Amino acid sequence: MKNRIKALAKAYAPDFTAIRRHLHSHPELSFQEFETSAFIQQKLTEFGVPFQAGIAGTGIIALIAGKNPTSKTIALRADMDALPITEANEVSYKSTNPGVMHACGHDVHTSCVLGATKILNELKDQFEGTIKVLFQPGEEKHPGGASIMIEEGALDNPRPDAILGLHVHPTMEAGKLGFHAGKYMASADEIYITIKGKGGHAAQPHLTVDTILVASQLVVSLQQIISRNNNPFSPSVLSICAFNGGFTTNVIPSEVKLMGTFRAMDETWRFKAHELIRKQAIGVAEAMGAEIDIEILVGYPTLYNNEEVTAKAEGFATDYLGTAFVGDTEIRMGAEDFAFYSQVVPACFFRLGTGNVARGITSGVHTPTFDVDEQAIEVGMGTMAYLATQF
């Protein structure tokens, strides 16, 4: 099986590199992946793989039934959306959609999983069980396409025994894989605060509520929630990233808005922190005579890699690629809506190296110069196919 998959991955790599370039040239924003979805449906039809479209809007569920298809189900997931970034790369496959770019590698994810789908469909008489393939919209935008896919039954009929996903890693050499069991990526919640008070002349602060000062005190004060309340062995981050108020040098504004993000690796601490943030914000504002509105938008949960599934996946990947190409990767305070799947079924989310220092392919994700060494596509599609068969 391993040799057959390797041969097919090598043979089809040029085709799926071309598919990656097509997707890269035609990026679409979250929940607007209409052409992308139609393209994937066309390819699945060409491959002879049955599918259901229209899940979470543009999402697709494909099924590959092997021998004894009810024995076990393994799910593979790819995200399809791009980012609102103007591409700066001068390449033949540069984005043709102004202001939109595949700057997070979802074109690679889709190409790898679509390639694995073709391989698996050709080998379906040689493995047991069912492979369920999810092509998912809206990973980059709240509430996350994964949450909607789950609500609309993507993990039902049949329910996966495990789910696998991959993500590009630009600081890892192309073709290498990284795994990490347990808590792997942080939850991500959005904080919106509005501070209100009587504005007035800056020369008469005693006749006003200084909303700028209140907001400044609050920004500093909120950091104490992390440093004094969180277990220091459990990573957590609170960052206020927007401070908007005032319009001139001599007027204290009547309103100031703050926006930020809160990240955690522990779901219990996550929601305790929400309570502390609200309490602290209200207390500071009231003590200084201001009114305050605060909203904490609950986003993606902690991404948890099931220990047993991840150990097996890493072992199968090592068997497929060799020990020199598989290793551990670090936990990350970034967030991923694959986390929703990991909270429901045993999951493994791993990294696919796409960097190449010698060729200058080193830019990080979410940047205008992000690109990948496309040699990684053959490794990604082959690995996903092999892991699916071995599970």
From TrEMBL:
<feature type="binding site">
    <location>
        <position position="106"/>
    </location>
    <ligand>
        <name>Mn(2+)</name>
    </ligand>
</feature>
<dbReference type="InterPro" id="IPR036264">
    <property type="entry name" value="Bact_exopeptidase_dim_dom"/>
</dbReference>
<feature type="binding site">
    <location>
        <position position="366"/>
    </location>
    <ligand>
        <name>Mn(2+)</name>
    </ligand>
</feature>
<protein>
    <submittedName>
        <fullName>Hippurate hydrolase</fullName>
    </submittedName>
</protein>
<dbReference type="Pfam" id="PF01546">
    <property type="entry name" value="Peptidase_M20"/>
</dbReference>
<feature type="domain" description="Peptidase M20 dimerisation">
    <location>
        <begin position="192"/>
        <end position="268"/>
    </location>
</feature>
<dbReference type="GO" id="GO:0019877">
    <property type="term" value="P:diaminopimelate biosynthetic process"/>
</dbReference>
<feature type="binding site">
    <location>
        <position position="167"/>
    </location>
    <ligand>
        <name>Mn(2+)</name>
    </ligand>
</feature>
<feature type="binding site">
    <location>
        <position position="140"/>
    </location>
    <ligand>
        <name>Mn(2+)</name>
    </ligand>
</feature>
<keyword id="KW-0464">Manganese</keyword>
<feature type="binding site">
    <location>
        <position position="104"/>
    </location>
    <ligand>
        <name>Mn(2+)</name>
    </ligand>
</feature>
<dbReference type="InterPro" id="IPR017439">
    <property type="entry name" value="Amidohydrolase"/>
</dbReference>
<dbReference type="InterPro" id="IPR011650">
    <property type="entry name" value="Peptidase_M20_dimer"/>
</dbReference>
<dbReference type="GO" id="GO:0046872">
    <property type="term" value="F:metal ion binding"/>
</dbReference>
<keyword id="KW-0378">Hydrolase</keyword>
<dbReference type="InterPro" id="IPR002933">
    <property type="entry name" value="Peptidase_M20"/>
</dbReference>
<dbReference type="Pfam" id="PF07687">
    <property type="entry name" value="M20_dimer"/>
</dbReference>
<keyword id="KW-0479">Metal-binding</keyword>
<dbReference type="GO" id="GO:0050118">
    <property type="term" value="F:N-acetyldiaminopimelate deacetylase activity"/>
</dbReference>
